[in-house]
Structure formats: structure tokens, C-alpha cells
Amino acid sequence: MRSRKTFTLVFAGSTLLTVAAYATPGPQRMVAPKLYGLTEIADGVYTDDPSKAAQEMLLISQANAKVKAFFGALETTPRYVLCTTMMCEKAFGKNNRIAVTYGWHAIHLPPRGANDPHLGQILLTHERVHSELHKRWGASELWDAKFPTWFDEGLASYLSGDDRLRLDYSDKDIQWISHARRIYSWGSFIQERGWADAYGAATAYVTRIQAKAGEKGLHELIDRTIKGEDFDAVLADLMRDNRS
Ligand SMILES: [Zn+2]
């Protein structure tokens, strides 16, 4: 009896927790976007405004083409949630400030991107670069300093052609952002000097690597670190003047 009662209580409790989780606005709702009024306009692509489906799918395919141009064949098929209104945005616990990638599984685009094709393409490209890089690096690696966050953000911004950022950052600025190594410390760099400087300096750093070693060098940095070499050692190798 006792165990049955315990089971019932635990079951009732976990059901309540599940109900509470989905009743509370937040990204967990991306598991079942249709429950919150979104329409699936293509496999795994959800929006609150299916009348814009053609434009939304074009944005995704243009972003994917840019990411493919760098990575080659794409390894991920993230779910997309595109919100064109604040009502949708709030249902997923967002405030129209940023686009987000969850691991390599899901991408959320806020109204300011969904309603502005130019910005929308930049944001979708940026997030899709994250999903491809996160898949190649492996999720657990993102939480340690092995693959620095400045490179993750810098590469995403560089490949998205983010024209909101300036790139004329000094050695001192690059030095500053090179300390942004972990995903959970990125916010403190944004807080310190603002998002434009954090993303701008990270992008300027990636641009410097590209100028020195080419996109081939960026690939080499990613590929060698995936195989277990130390990121900083490979980077130093790429940036040497007399590299043979
Ligand atoms: Zn990012």
C-alpha cells in the first residue's frame, strides 16, 4: 500500500511539475511549439505567422547556404521557432533581444529578426554556425575552456557578415576578449563593455586569424582541436610568421 501511495504521489507530483513547466513561458516550450499556437510550415520549422512562410523559408535557406559555404555539408537539422509577435516571443520566455541556439537542436528567432529579412538572415546564419560548431565540438566541450567562447561567437558573427559590428579593434581589445573562454562567462564581458564590443572584438579576432591563415586556417583550427590538440597551441602555430 505504502509503495503504491508513494508511487501515486510521485507520479502526481511529477505530472504537476510537467504541467507547471509547460504552463510557464520559457524555452522548454520549443519541444512542442504547436501547443502554443505555432504552425509547422516545413519539417521542424514553426512560426506564429504562416502567411509569411515563403519569406521565412527563404531566410533559412539563405542562411544555410552561407553556413554551407564554410562548413561544407551541414551535420545538424535544428528545429526552428520563428516568432513574429511579442505574444509568441513571451510564450517562449523571450524579450525580443536575442536569437538563441539550444545545443545544436533548436534555434529561436525573435520578432525583430523574423520581421526584418536583413537582420533575420544575419541572426539565423549566426545561430546556425553555432549549431554546426557545437555539434562538431561536442556539447560537453562547450562548458570547459577547451574551445573558447570568443571563437564560437566570433566565428558565428564573422560568417554571418554582421554589419552592426565594427572591426577596428586594437591588440588590447583582442587581448581583453581572448579571456572570454567559457559560455557562462560571456555575459560578464557583454556587461563590462556592451554587446557590440564583446561581439565586435571577438569577430575582429577571428578576422585577424582569417587574414593571416585564410579560411583554411580557421578550418585547421577547428579540425585539429576536434582531434584533441590544444586550441591555443594550434592558434599560435597558425599565427606564426614563418609558418612553412
Ligand atoms: Zn552567438
TrEMBL record:
Keywords: Signal. It comes from the Bacteria. Residues 1-23 form the signal peptide. This is Peptidase MA-like domain-containing protein. It comes from Rhizobium aquaticum.
